[in-house]
Amino acid sequence: xxxxxxxxxxxxxxxxxxxxxxxxxxxxxxxxxxxxxxxxxxxxxxxxxxxxxxxxxxxxxxxxxxxxxxxxxxxxxxxxxxxxxxxxxxxxxxxxxxxxxxxxxxxxxxxxxxxxxxxxxxxxxxxxxxxxxxxxxxxxxxxxxxxxxxxxxxxxxxxxxxxxxxxxxxxxxxxxxxxxxxxxxxxxxxxxxxxxxxxxxxxxxxxxxxxxxxxxxxxxxxxxxxxxxxxxxxxxxxxxxxxxxxxxxxxxxxxxxxxxxxxxxxxxxxxxxxxxxxxxxxxxxxxxxxxxxxxxxxxxxxxxxxxxxxxxxxxxxxxxxxxxxxxxxxxxxxxxxxxxxxxxxxxxxxxxxxxxxxxxxxxxxxxxxxxxxxxxxxxxxxxxxxxxxxxxxxxxxxxxxxxxxxxxxxxxxxxxxxxxxxxxxxxxxx
Amino acid sequence: xxxxxxxxxxxxxxxxxxxxxxxxxxxxxxxxxxxxxxxxxxxxxxxxxxxxxxxxxxxxxxxxxxxxxxxxxxxxxxxxxxxxxxxxxxxxxxxxxxxxxxxxxxxxxxxxxxxxxxxxxxxxxxxxxxxxxxxxxxxxxxxxxxxxxxxxxxxxxxxxxxxxxxxxxxxxxxxxxxxxxxxxxxxxxxxxxxxxxxxxxxxxxxxxxxxxxxxxxxxxxxxxxxxxxxxxxxxxxxxxxxxxxxxxxxxxxxxxxxxxxxxxxxxxxxxxxxxxxxxxxxxxxxxxxxxxxxxxxxxxxxxx
Lengths: 430, 304
Prior knowledge:
The structure holds two protein chains of two kinds.
Chain A: H1 2-25, E1 36-42, H2 47-57, E2 61-67, H3 75-85, E3 91-95, H4 96-104, H5 112-115, H6 124-129, E4 131-132, E5 135-136, E6 138-140, E7 142-143, E8 146-151, H7 152-157, H8 166-179, H9 191-200, E9 206-209, E10 212-215, H10 220-234, H11 246-254, E11 259-263, H12 266-273, E12 281-284, E13 302-306, H13 313-325, H14 327-337, E14 340-341, H15 364-374, H16 385-400, H17 406-423
Parallel strand pairs in A: 1-2, 1-3
Antiparallel strand pairs in A: 3-13, 4-5, 6-13, 7-14, 8-11, 8-12, 9-10
Chain B: H1 2-6, H2 8-44, E1 47-50, E2 60-63, H3 67-74, H4 76-108, H5 115-127, H6 130-141, H7 147-156, H8 168-193, H9 197-205, H10 210-221, H11 223-238, H12 242-247, H13 261-270, H14 274-303
Helix pairs in contact in B: 2-14, 3-14, 4-8, 4-11, 5-8, 6-8, 11-14, 13-14
């Protein structure tokens, strides 16, 4: 009996000691002159180096960078969950397409009072992409004007001219596939990569009418884009390799995927993940719906957003502003990640007028500079984008695989998105 | 200390208290990691997200105990996902456990050769994390570079559409079977080891063949292990998540974001609708609980 009593006391004692020890270790206060610590979550290649450059440039703030999965692949979920749980980092990489949705979750901190002084340094479109109404939620970093990446070997071997219109693009697709059935003009496009085509066709998915959302994912303009790609699917001209899958990178490297119509940062993706494609790829302007038109779309582009609960927004803004505007830091981001600056001063960076070895020495950013000036106006992102692209991808993946049509996928996405907005009590304009 | 043990009443309290003190670490973790989240999820499922106008401010929660549950049962995709795992379980679990039992009996038989090797080989897939296994199978299933289809095409001139509407579920089932057969085999095999040798010897002396011994003695003797693995597998089927999630991007839309009940709940989390995700989880948990209970009842009745 005595032994048992002693044992139980021993156990309780051990527990008590454990608690006391924990209390001790968490009790220390930071000394007054220690630097402010800011946590930052992102995924773009080159961000880690940008953080190092900032930390080396001054002593007052230390930024801790953590690489997370890219937004649509789980990064946003992690960030929003962290905000809900109250342990979010101060700063996070948030794409313009998702910023409104983050704001609608109350996941962002308004830093307009701190940031307003720097507004003039950024292009108006990117600044408004980081704002909702009068609130500013962070610093824009880059933007995603679109162009056509193409495999010069494939086009030259067949004596094909680089397509300038979508009709020519389809003709090229037929020639490429007829010459070698294992080769395709392109892989398929989902979520925001697909949205870029609707952006070019001036078929915005959302709009604001007074105090209500106007949802137009199934607009007639969008349906024309859908029927174009439907024609490509029906004729078997699209590669079955899913974009972002290993087979996609392989296809980019070995010529079985001949083009990709996408944003400037695709350059960084190709360089980083499809090294076999080096020297084979080049960039041409985005194909047009009508010969002679000069309209392009935009895919992605992101900013450094200040998340809800950030205790030191001044320090957070200081870093965000640095990464977006420091010439040396951004030059490195251009080279490694293919980021195209949101800060207007940086548009004259020497690196943006240099040739790129991966692209056979082509000065690719000159193509994107043109595209940047031609991006269609009037695109608006909705308040529930993660939900919307979830619906879209479920239906669109089926359509690309020949089950249902792309137009039906857009209609289904429209209906589910509107129902989702209604269910949460949001106003939707009829 | 002596004062405590001298006092009879205190000693009784102590006797009563000691086992609880030993249970405390378990109970504390169980309550914190298991009970609390379940209660939290249940409470959360009674609320709905409410916003207004353009909804550019944080949503508020309003108490509406039946709204999420009403939506769960009228959500075609969620109901379809329940049906899907039901079909999956009804087909995959018997096949997997049949295989596991067969391998266990073969390993246990007197004439087995290379027992150590085969035991390890069949258990090895379980050592591979299911996500890694699914990634590996996604290479084998790849619509573009599948080596299986590459071989079939060369040798026989046909390919298997792994992600056609009809086959996708069974492609997933194949991965699950590959991962878990060895694990279940090991539980059954361990149970086989506990059968007393004299019983098997007696059967042998009576002239029973090896097949007869397996059928009439070994299988009835490992019945509890088979029931246990069945319940584990029923729960596993209901919680199907890793394999379909990994295969989704290459499935050409055959595997949607709401393919299984857990994926559907996860999709609701991604859409930041925690209350609805909680309601989906609660419904799934209750259904699995009922299914396991019924299974125990049915199999328990046969035993008596």
